[in-house]
Amino acid sequence: MRAYIVENSEIVRNWLALLLVEIEGLELVGQAGSAKIATEEILRLRPDVMLVDIKLSDGNGLDVLESVQAQGLKTRAIVMTFDPYSQYRKRAMELGAIYFIDKAKELENIRLILGQVVAEQRVTLKAA
């Protein structure tokens, strides 16, 4: 499974990158802190899953989801934020996010969540 990280904080982005390489069956194909760069690279690289921060240096992670969805890409999205407002959660889910993570309370669960996503893809591939 190919993964892409969209995260404003370089520290968090690097931490997530280190975490992802430890998960069997997951390959990190790219990362960005910018909505523009992330959108361009996701459309080009076509990852299976993306971890998306809402606040980015030049925009909003929800805009990235919307752009990717508008292009018909089926990349699964895990949205992360320190601002878990209900309107963000609602919009993320409308845009097809499979998880919405409050970074202040749930970021430590990301390894478990990604493990589940990888396992679900394996089951889906076996069934196909």
How would you describe what is shown here?
The strands form 2 sheets. Strands 2-1-3-6-7 form a 5-stranded parallel sheet, sandwiched between helices. The protein has a two-stranded antiparallel sheet with strand order 4-5. It is 50% helix and 25% strand. With 128 residues, the protein is an alpha/beta fold. Helix 2 packs parallel to helix 3. It is built from 6 helices and 7 strands, in the order βαβαβββαβαβαα. The longest helix has 18 residues. The protein is globular, with a radius of gyration of 13 Å. It has a single domain, classed as Response regulator (Rossmann fold). The mean pLDDT is 92.
In short:
β4 and β5 form a beta hairpin.
Please provide the count of β strands: 7
Total domain units: 1
Q: Kindly provide the name of the CATH class.
A: Alpha Beta
Rounded to an integer in angstroms, the radius of gyration calculated over CA atoms is: 13 Å
The sequence of SSEs as H and E is EHEHEEEHEHEHH
How does CATH name the architecture? 3-Layer(aba) Sandwich
The CATH superfamily is Response regulator
Task: Tell me the strand order in the biggest sheet.
Answer: 2-1-3-6-7
Task: Using the alpha-carbon principal axes, give the shape.
Answer: globular
- Percent helix range: 40-55%
CATH fold group: Rossmann fold
Beta-strand share of residues: 25-35%
Number of helices: 6
User: Helices and strands: which structural class?
Assistant: alpha/beta
N→C terminal distance: 16 Å
Q: Which regions have little confidence, pLDDT < 50, spanning 5+ residues?
A: none
| Largest beta-sheet details | 5 strands, parallel
Overall mean pLDDT stands at 92
